[in-house]
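Late entry, written up from scratch paper. The run itself happened at the end of the previous shift, but nothing got recorded in the book at the time, so transcribing now.
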Amino acid sequence: MSSNESAPINSAQLGALERAAQGCHINALGLSFGELQAQSKFSIVGSKISLAVTLGLPIGTLNDELHSALVMVLKPLTAGCELHIDIKSDIPSGRGNGKTQALPGVKNIIAIASGKGGVGKSATALNLALALRAQGANVGLLDADIYGPSQPTMLGVPSDTRPEVEDKKYFLPVIAHGLQTMSMGYMVTEKTPMAWRGPMVSGALMQMIGQTRWNDLDYLLIDMPPGTGDIQLTLAQQVPCTGCVIVTTPQNIALLDARKGIEMFQKVGIDCLGIVENMATHICSQCGHEEFIFGSGGGESIAGEYAVPLLGSLPLAPIIRELLDQGQPIVIAQPDSPIAEQYIRIAQQLALRVCQAAQDKTVAVPDIIISDD
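Output as recorded:
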């Protein structure tokens, strides 16, 4: 054997490679590839070793970290060999509550909810949708607030925009910032009052959800109206939600209503995927002093109470509101800002929770293909 040739990989070495890949830790997610139940496929042709890894969440900004982590643990085990690593996403479909049919064209439906208004739920839903898209996912956003739709304005969609109709039956979603969107705001003018009773509102909402041609969505985020009334209950019972996210502020009143929201979803068999604490802190633009003007620790407290993760905390920052008023959400307008990065981290944790909810408890065994060619 010449000095340039390497000895063939034996079964013991393959086992070591498998264990190393599965045990490789991802700092940003706090889990290993094995704990994520990543699908790993080793291909060996002569001295060339290829590893294809498939994760059940969008990779996006994680790609470099994932690749570097695998190289670090595998390189010492593949001395003299050529190592190639390919990482991709295959986002699984959520199971919903098992009582409703799947929505065509949508893998996962996530309700973004709050027990009361004024906690920044709509801003959070929009920026999370954009953050998920920035990670490489196909994302839709449904504005479920019939009485006060706000998403078209925050998306910067012209007020005269109307959805196209297909086959005289289906709406085509309005594309905004790469999101597939639908809202009652596209159906009426800004001055049109929705003086409807509960059953009419519920019917209109279900029509928007079921008669929109959603196209190959990994995630459909539903910006729920505030409260826990008839509309919320109808939506929770008739839409196959993978789970919900509760948005709250740290103050006690908001936390009381957040509990009601979690309890409502639990009663209809929808799991809470996590808590987002909004307006957690205020940083003075003049002196930089940080102050907890609405209290502190509220999001962490309610997350602990219901044994769900605190997906993240967001500051009370005027720039979020200012940009939304201009139709330029901060994740789009200032993607490298600390606040946009916080939304990205929350989106990563949300995608992780959706992935875990869809997985079985057993870790899949990696496939191995060996060739002498």
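The longest helix spans residues 338-358.
(Scratch paper discarded after transcription.)
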